[in-house]
Design brief:
488 residues; 4-stranded antiparallel sheet; 1 helix; 43 strands
């Protein structure tokens, strides 16, 4: 709030380059500890630390350097004590926090906490301070002048980058870089998970295969994790992750097993109930597994790769059954027909190919005029399907015809182009949903091909849209790391 005129900004830069800052809604104190009309905050730059005083009426800023000698530290976070701001607590990259006397601007003591730096800190009533570490440590200390005593300590998954105290100081909110938010009781330091989310792009979402009553859906993220969500309360019931580098590009699941294709070229499976690993298919595709579908008899998989291969795998033996190579670019979707005899694949090479899996040959081919194909959605009769891609059109195809039956714009607004990344159909095929680079989820009437509803909440590209089995909800995922659930 103090950067309201250019002169003030220059005064800050000339005095101290502030990379970390702590602002308290309190006023500075005079020599008799009486509140003045100036706001007080602390800021650090490099290995320097200063306490600032801001006059909100004139915009004047003054600062006093804090003497941290003999310690040399880089400061990450700050908190003023609650007893008249007599002390300033400063977390450091060295894994300790320093206690400074605000009145005399002197170092009182330092207290080791954790490894990987003290990344968050908050002050409580009664001269208590809570420090969170980059190694997931959360510790409660009693600070009396130059003496610190540890009262409690717990561990979290991931670095603690956010701490917030309730007004009465009885509870804390703790947020980690792994996407978890916990509630912590300061009385006994017990914790409870409140919510979680992916921390990077969410690449794919899907409901259970072959279960029309499923209320769970699975998401794949560039943060290297898979999460199985319950749509009733939006909680994550299962989490899957690996320690080696790589992330899941595509996934699906049944009541017993989660199957996923990864950027390292492996197909990995996990238990649905607890996320434990089951089995892998190593070197399934060079460059990554970009598409995956499960047969209706649950006996084989069809996968697509970044290099353009379509492959069939027997689940029981994990052996390669068929290798189909006609695509010349990344395969973006595969779909197995209900009879488990034919499959459809689309790729960035502008082609959509229909395969006879038993005879291991291509039976039909559709070619988009220009640009790669990002997604397809097959109607219930398995004769008509929709495609979207870099051509920025929605194309209707019939497998009995060699050319497209209809092509429409991706947006109802004139001169607005949206490169759609995903198209989806519900089981009744009355509507279809799309999402793309504009971040808008649109619902279209299948009969008239007109938009009947749209909404925007994503701040990035929509990577996937999918309908719930009852057709009453749509799940959309995006490069902004968000998973949205929409009611129709």
């Amino acid at each position: 709030f103090f950067f309201f005129k250019q002169k003030t900004a220059y005064e800050i830069l000339s005095g101290l380059v502030g990379s970390e800052m702590c602002i308290r809604d309190r006023f500075t104190k005079d020599i008799k500890l009486r509140a003045t009309s100036k706001y007080q905050f602390a800021a650090s730059g490099g290995q320097k630390l200063a306490v600032w005083a801001l006059d909100p009426f004139t915009g004047d800023l003054k600062f006093d350097m804090i003497n941290a000698s003999p310690l040399v530290r880089s400061y990450i976070c700050f908190a003023f004590s609650l007893n008249n701001e007599a002390a300033l607590y400063a977390g450091t990259t060295s894994g300790d926090f320093c206690v400074f006397q605000v009145k005399n601007k002197l170092l009182l003591c330092s207290q080791p906490v954790c490894a990987k730096g003290v990344t968050s800190i908050v002050a409580l009533q009664g001269d208590k301070v809570v420090a969170g570490g980059g190694d997931g440590t959360l510790a409660l200390f009693l600070v009396k002048e130059a003496v610190c005593q540890m009262l409690s300590k717990i561990e979290f998954l991931g670095s603690l980058y956010g701490l917030s105290s309730s007004p009465d100081g009885l509870q804390l909110l703790a947020a980690t870089d792994k996407g978890f938010i916990y509630r912590v009781r300061t009385a006994d330091f017990s914790k409870m998970l409140l919510s979680e989310t992916h921390t990077k792009e969410v690449l794919h979402a899907i409901y259970a295969v072959g279960n029309k009553d499923s209320e769970r859906f699975l998401t794949s993220s560039a943060d290297g994790s898979l999460r199985l969500w319950d749509a009733n309360d939006y909680s994550a019931v299962t989490r899957c992750a690996i320690l080696t580098p790589g992330n899941p590009l595509v996934s699906l699941f049944t009541e017993e097993v989660i199957l996923s294709g990864w950027s390292d070229g492996k197909i990995r499976t996990f238990r649905t109930d607890n996320g434990d690993p089951l089995w892998n298919i190593d070197n399934a595709h060079k460059g990554g597994v970009s598409a995956l579908d499960l047969s209706h008899n649950n006996k084989f998989l069809v996968s697509g790769g970044v290099a353009g291969e379509v492959r069939v795998w027997e689940i029981k033996t994990k052996d390669l059954v068929t290798h189909l190579k006609e695509h010349t670019a990344k395969v973006t979707n595969v779909h197995i027909f209900a009879d488990d005899t034919f499959a459809l694949s689309c790729a960035k090479d502008c082609c959509i190919l229909c395969w006879d899996l038993k005879n291991e040959r291509r039976v039909t081919a559709h070619t988009q005029r220009m640009g790669g194909i990002n997604s397809i959605a097959v109607c219930g009769d398995e004769r008509v399907y929709l495609s979207t891609g870099q051509e920025r059109k929605i194309t209707f195809w019939d497998l009995r015809q060699s050319t497209a039956t209809k092509i429409i714009n991706t947006s109802p607004i004139a001169n607005e182009d949206d490169e759609l990344q995903s198209v989806a159909l519900p089981l009744d095929n009355k509507y279809f949903a799309t999402g793309g680079t504009l971040g808008i989820v649109r619902v279209w009437d299948m009969a008239t091909q007109k938009v009947i509803g749209e909404a925007k909440a994503h701040s990035g590209v929509i990577t996937c849209v999918t309908f719930s089995p009852d057709g009453k909800q749509i799940v959309s995922t995006g490069t902004d790391g968000m998973t949205m659930i929409w009611n129709l």
